[in-house]
Write a structure and sequence with these properties.
Elements: E1 13-18, E2 24-29, E3 33-40, E4 45-52, H1 53-62, H2 64-73
Antiparallel strand pairs: 1-2, 3-4
Length: about 80
């Protein structure tokens, strides 16, 4: 599963880990990605979305129908 949110588009950030001696090594900051299953009443089926924690809160706020419309407007597959 890639660390990419279908709704918000959040993806990993990249940077450096800095040790006590200040040696810099590459690292990756992954978003908090969860797989959630929602009931899509308009289509009469369940859908499974890969969302970040913020994406889950967004779905709770705007509703699943509006969230799916946003995902499809971005060209995402649901």
């Amino acid at each position: 599963m890639s660390a990419h949110c279908q709704l918000t588009g959040r993806s990993p950030g990249f940077g450096k880990s800095i040790s006590h001696s200040h040696r810099r090594t590459p690292r990756r900051f992954d978003p908090n990605i969860q797989r959630k299953r929602y009931w899509l009443a308009s289509e009469g089926r369940h859908i499974r979305l890969t969302l970040s924690a913020k994406g889950i809160r967004t779905v709770d706020t705007i509703g699943i129908e509006a969230a799916v419309a946003r995902i499809r407007a971005r060209g995402g597959k649901v």
